[in-house]
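A.,

Following up on our hallway conversation. Structure tokens first:
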């Protein structure tokens, strides 16, 4: 069994649900994960800035957007965190937003650990840009 296949099988998602929606296509699943990660990297920086500036409309908007994309992939831990970030923006609760931003980092690390090593290196490189 290849490293990628092994990691895909253990990725922290509701795999049966996603595979049913995409017709069992493992390559398409990997493509969806790659798209999610690229989107996440861009929006992560914007979310961090929005929290630093207490920009509640942006916190809500970014949380909502990432909640939708994580829900489509059944990334349940991330979906829950994004839901809470979106709610903290709506409620203008900056302390909750900060707390869930920390949790977001922990949940994303769980996802990142299940990716092939070259993808993890690519993500780490993008953080440095």
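Then the amino acids I'd put at each of the 129 positions:
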């Amino acid at each position: 069994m290849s490293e990628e296949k092994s990691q895909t099988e253990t990725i922290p998602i509701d795999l049966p649900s996603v595979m049913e929606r995409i017709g069992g296509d493992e390559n398409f699943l990997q493509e969806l994960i790659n798209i999610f990660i690229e989107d996440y990297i861009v929006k992560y920086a914007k979310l961090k800035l929005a929290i630093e500036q207490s920009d509640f409309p942006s916190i809500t908007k970014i949380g909502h957007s990432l909640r939708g994309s994580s829900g489509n992939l059944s990334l349940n831990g991330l979906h829950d965190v994004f839901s809470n970030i979106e709610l903290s923006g709506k409620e203008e609760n900056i302390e909750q937003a900060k707390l869930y931003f920390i949790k977001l980092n922990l949940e994303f690390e769980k996802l990142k650990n299940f990716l092939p090593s070259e993808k993890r290196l690519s993500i780490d490189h993008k953080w440095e840009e």
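The longest helix spans residues 26-52. Curious whether your intuition agrees with the design.

B.
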